[in-house]
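Check out a protein:
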Amino acid sequence: MQAIKTTGYTIYFNEDCYGYLQDLLASENYSGIFILADTNTSQYCLPNFLAQVATELPIEIIEIEAGEVNKSIETCIEVWHALTDLGADRKGIIINLGGGVVTDLGGFAASTFKRGMDFINVPTTLLAMVDASVGGKTGVDLGVVKNQVGIINNPIAVLIDTQFLETLPQPEMRSGLAEMLKHGLIADEKYWNNFSDLTGLTTDDLGALIHWSVEIKNTIVAQDPNEKGIRKVLNFGHTMGHAIESQFLNSATPLLHGEAVAIGMVLESYFSMAKGFISKEEYEVIKSAIISIFGTTDFTSNDIESIIALLVHDKKNERGKVQFVLLEGIGKAVINQEVENILIINAFHDFQK
């Protein structure tokens, strides 16, 4: 697959990833390599990755616990301490090998340690490949509130090797589909239509859809790198989704990011219908497609009340008002929309029918 050039760096795919990496390590005078992995990627992905890296530079492994609950400032402090103990300096390079937790946290740690080190993201989950690979968002959660602390800072490259997907359990694969569905809903109806029937999907088909998804996101981000305007459309499903994810983060049944965003997309499609932006038929098509993949989740009245309260922390809010991204049809979105609480409650009730 052809590399995708973004504003400031390039995304490489499959065999091209390792050719780029070898050339980089041979040409740049790095003092050392620091690979950040979690307990899952350390076991299932790191051996194969290291087998592709031929260098005389010293390589150190920093391992964190897996899971969204560990995307915290406390874990980031542990990474900073590890870098310090290992003698990292600004001429070292950090390679973040993992899903969105690793790339977000690792990018933030790299961007702030000694005021900035080079870093490369190697996403190993479907969700990270189509979402975290573009845009330079880094950061950590603050308690259960998602992405409250961070900066936008680009890696020097992103390496997407789709063979890592073979290590993923089915729920993680399904989680990644949420971001791909989102890209179709906000920007490309033709892309959305590819997900109407997934029964015949092959590995090659998935690789092509990943590339297409990255292109969609890159086109949007290139117009608005700092999320002042059009880039906000990428948050469709996320205003509700992040609040839902936060609500269940420390419960006995936490939701994966993509699972929460999938629910968020159904709810925010309901808002779009209620405000007259999309037809009831379009809403039903969206709802049916997403529920056929992700199923439904039960919410108590207390859950809904807590989720509404959590919306005040969304990073798109302005002057104390919650700002939603809504659809104006399949393949088009509109930003900065306010939604009344009664609509949110009605949307939950409709979702659970």
